[in-house]
Design brief:
With about 325 residues, the chain is of the alpha/beta class. The protein has 2 domains: about 1-110 and about 195-210 and about 270-325, Alpha-Beta Barrel (TIM Barrel); about 115-185. The chain has helices at about 1-10, 40-55, 60-70, 85-95, 115-125, 135-140, 150-165, 170-185, 195-205, 225-240, 260-270, 305-325, and strands at about 20-25, 55, 75-80, 105, 130-135, 145, 210, 250, 275.
Length: about 325
């Protein structure tokens, strides 16, 4: 039934739809701080669903076949953002076992021992020996006094801190995050992100690599020079490592208007990318701008619910695209 439903919502040819999944990490085991996060066992199950329900393509191939109207029915591509080390140690072996390919968008400034700012906050809150964390002066918020007695309180503290820090300027955010780490008294890990060698190994194993800026900034907050540097330098660094052109890009955070702007889209074209990914929910069709490709990942834990939600996402995208397609 699911197979037929997906086939109807995403036929082959000119009216095809492309689903692109967006993920970040595949943990080796369940994390009590993030119980909804995908671990290796769940990702293995998910890959089985994808293999049976969809025609999974490399993302660059899928984008080109969407452009030419030659996609197969039930077309889907898999993507990961940021460049976590567990993409190499956990996700890649599972993908290979299922005969699947994914595209990994890398924030190059965090390769080889770097750590993303939100992970510094996460690990500081996770690992602090303190029973509470007072950040009222750092965040300029009288409510920023966080009890940390259990996982639920630590999770609530994380969501509040990250939500407040996300849209600070890059320099201000870096200072605030550094001060939070210092104040926590925690020893933080330096192996959360991939090494350059792991990245090369993934590429050699058949995985695709795309750019995701250098430092993962909110592009909409940067001036044109800074945004260009972030986007161009990440592309250049990856091309130096891999010895080949990198044509795919993903906007950090990825919400149009909030995280990236029309100027960001223009830069992606000008720098020489072939396509760029947002995090707007939906599925792409032939009228979709390849530099604002939607992505979608339902988190349902049953095959039936997962497949049904994917079908609804495809059908909603079909409805939105019909006027443009009739006028094409």
């Amino acid at each position: 039934m699911l197979h037929s439903l997906l086939q109807f919502a995403s036929p082959a040819g000119a009216r095809a739809r492309l689903s692109v999944l967006v993920l970040h990490r595949v943990l080796p085991r369940h994390d009590p701080l993030f119980p909804e996060a995908i671990d290796a066992a769940r990702f293995d199950e998910l890959c089985g669903w994808l293999k049976s329900l969809f025609n999974v393509l490399p993302l660059d191939t899928a984008v080109e076949r969407l452009r030419t109207g030659s996609l197969p029915a039930r077309a889907l591509a898999i993507s990961f953002d940021d460049g976590y080390a567990d993409n190499h140690s956990q996700a890649m072996p599972i993908l290979l076992r299922h005969g699947l390919c994914a595209t990994f968008f890398i924030a190059t400034g965090f390769l080889d021992g770097g750590r993303m700012w939100n992970d510094t906050v996460t690990e500081a809150v996770r690992r602090t020996p303190l029973a509470s964390l007072d950040l009222r002066d750092l965040l300029r918020n009288d409510a920023a006094l966080y009890a940390l007695d259990d996982s639920m309180q630590r999770r609530a503290a994380l969501e509040a801190i990250i939500g407040q820090a996300k849209y600070l300027s890059v320099d201000k955010r870096a200072q605030v995050v550094h001060d939070i780490a210092e104040r926590s008294g925690a020893t933080l890990p330096n192996d959360l992100m991939m090494t350059s060698e792991q990245l090369v190994q993934m590429h050699r194993a058949g995985m695709q690599i795309g750019a995701h800026t250098v430092s993962h900034p909110i592009l909409a907050t940067l001036d044109e020079h800074a945004a260009r540097r972030e986007m161009h330098d990440s592309k250049l660094r990856l091309e130096e490592l891999l010895g080949e052109r990198v044509g795919l890009f993903a906007y950090p955070n990825g919400k149009p208007g909030e995280d990236y702007s029309p100027a960001s889209v223009a830069l992606a074209r000008e720098i020489g990318f072939d396509a760029a990914m947002s995090t707007t929910w939906g599925a792409a069709h032939r009228a979709t701008d390849p530099f604002e490709m939607p992505r979608f990942t339902p988190w349902d834990r049953s095959r039936l619910r997962f497949g049904a939600r994917m079908a609804r996402n495809l059908w909603a995208s079909r409805d939105r695209s019909m006027p443009a397609m009739r006028g094409a």
